[in-house]
Amino acid sequence: MTIKCIGVLTSGGDAPGMNAAIRAVTRAAIYHGIAVKGIYRGYKGLITGEIKDFQTQDVSNIIQRGGTVLKTARSEEFKTEEGRRIAYQTMQAHGIDALVVIGGDGSLSGARLFAEEYNFPIVGLPGTIDNDLSGTDLTIGYDTALNTIVEAVDKIRDTASSHERLFFIEVMGREAGFLALNGAIASGSEAAIIPEFALEKDQLAETIASGFRKTKNSSIVLVSESEVTGGAMGIAERVRNEYPHFDVRVVILGHIQRGGTPSAQDRILASRMGVAAIDALLEGQRNVMIGIDNDEIIYVPFSKAIKKNKAIDERLVSILHMLSI
Ligand code: ADP
User: Fold this and answer.
1) Are 5-141+262-305 and 143-258 equal in CATH topology?
2) How many Cα atoms are found within 13 Å in the side-chain-facing hemisphere of 165?
3) Counting atoms of ligand 1 from 1, which one is nearest the CA of 43?
4) Is 274's C-beta closer than 6 angstroms to any atom of ligand 1?
5) Domain spans, the chain
6) What is the CATH number of domain 143-258?
7) What is the pLDDT of residue 213?
8) Measuring CA to CA, which residue among 39, 44, 46, 43 is closest to residue 90?
9) Class of domain 5-141+262-305 (CATH, top level)
10) Is 130 marked active-site?
């Protein structure tokens, strides 16, 4: 099948670098003579027909902007067979032969189902700050979010050391500890409490037992948002009950982690992946996510990408532990 027209959409949680990805997909397609349609508000726009022809100038001056110019949304309707049927009819009415979906785990799960049901090509790009998609070393937005976390923790450190307090700082991750662990290493935090190890060991007890060094006058622990760890609020509550001699404070970084101008690394990653999405479609690939492995672009089947088993490198935990003595 020759692809004449692709649709591009962003879906689920936004991430810095999504615009750079939209730009790369659009321009690479046009470079290869393929028409591009921008689909607004994710799968929702595919159902309602919020679709616009994209030329190269439609993606001018966006590489440096956070968020997504295509907007993003969550669509309950797309989770139903009827919703996807309407979405497919809209695609056909607009002459769209293939889709590039930029989003996280949920968006790619939807893409997988949609592509299987209607037998047409979809290529996914991993757009999420959480870095929780399997088969890729990095996702678009992760590096920028890490930098935002480090900047925030540096500031909190100033006040933490003036007051000699124990701070629990909650970072995002949706049950994945990449932001907390690498954020802790990069900011010189004392420890990270992450969901991956929450069931096998008591990370709070270990952290306290390893003893915040007496000569240190402040302590910062990054905690992943998680139902398993209880997040920063849950951990602080435990400290108040079990170790009442600590003067505890909680900071929840929240949505500042999702915004902001994308880092150079995220812009480059998004540009490489956007071009690779079009290459993949031209090669006849379908139902794959573009990943990066050892600095090489790879194609990861959706089924593997959304498996939710991306492992944390335990050596990073040792490094954090060793460097916080
Ligand atoms: P993210 O892509 O950031 O993980 P969500 O999990 O909210 O975000 O998913 C975004 C959208 O993808 C949902 O609103 C829904 O429209 C679609 N989606 C998610 N999971 C499925 C699924 N299992 N089947 C069909 N569509 C899905």
Assistant:
1) yes
2) 16
3) 16
4) no
5) 5-141+262-305, 143-258
6) 3.40.50.460
7) 56
8) 46
9) alpha beta
10) yes
